[in-house]
């Protein structure tokens, strides 16, 4: 329990950086964190799209900025976090959302696609967490939430490399949680099932594809970005102050079957 009167789910006074935040799950996380009281920075490669998304949040009464952040460049990551510290205030929350998938059967995977997925989904996420932790450690507290996937817990046909990267992210979450606990930094992950976003919408609009997915999900529904964003707020908040190294499954029961 908090020792003061601040509601345990409140993020008032905190500053959050969300990577890949211009749409989908990333934008939903930015909106939910902002609604909970945090100042939010949208990390993005496309600064024009980022500023447009930040303006939408500002119009909703949220303190928001967009910062250029190339997850394939450690220098860009460091510069983005420094910009957040300067423009919004000391970073206290990082949501590692940026990710990539190139579906292909294992026998057909190219080295280019393999490297692209590991470079963004694992290497980029690690160095973003590292840069965030260096900032957070100077103040003795912080929360990092990695957007993993149920694909890191089960095998998905035609997605072997994506599954491998998300499994790596889940284990990375545990490793960083243990190593950074004495710095006051909590590290957790969420593992969503299929979520309705721009990248999945056309596939989910196919009746056969949708039917096959729903047959695997006991709750019999596809996730929405907000279904991921709300648990992220919980893990980032003081309500989860005794939770670190955890992966919260948001999969409608898929992995329980």
How is this fold's topology laid out?
Layout: E1 15-19, H1 24-35, E2 39-44, H2 47-59, E3 64-68, H3 74-87, E4 93-96, H4 111-137, E5 142-147, H5 160-180, E6 185-192, H6 198-204, H7 207-214, H8 225-236, E7 247-250
Parallel strand pairs: 1-2, 1-4, 2-3, 4-5, 5-6, 6-7
Provide the descriptors you would attach to this structure in a database record:
257 residues; alpha/beta; Rossmann fold; seven-stranded parallel sheet; 8 helices; 44% helix; globular
For the sheet with most strands, the description reads: 7 strands, parallel
Q: What oligomeric arrangement do these chains adopt?
A: single chain
Rg over C-alpha atoms, rounded to the nearest angstrom: 18 Å
| Straight-line N-to-C gap | 34 Å
Domain module count:
1
CATH-level-2 architecture: 3-Layer(aba) Sandwich
How much β-strand is present in the residues?
5-15%
Quick check: average pLDDT?
A: 96
CATH class: Alpha Beta
Order of helices and strands: EHEHEHEHEHEHHHE
Q: What fold name goes in the CATH topology slot?
A: Rossmann fold
What's the total number of strands?
7
CATH superfamily: NAD(P)-binding Rossmann-like Domain
What is the topology, as strand order, of the major beta sheet? 3-2-1-4-5-6-7
Low-confidence stretches: none
Q: Characterize the overall form.
A: globular
Total helices: the number is 8
**Structural class assignment:** alpha/beta
Helix percentage range: 40-55%
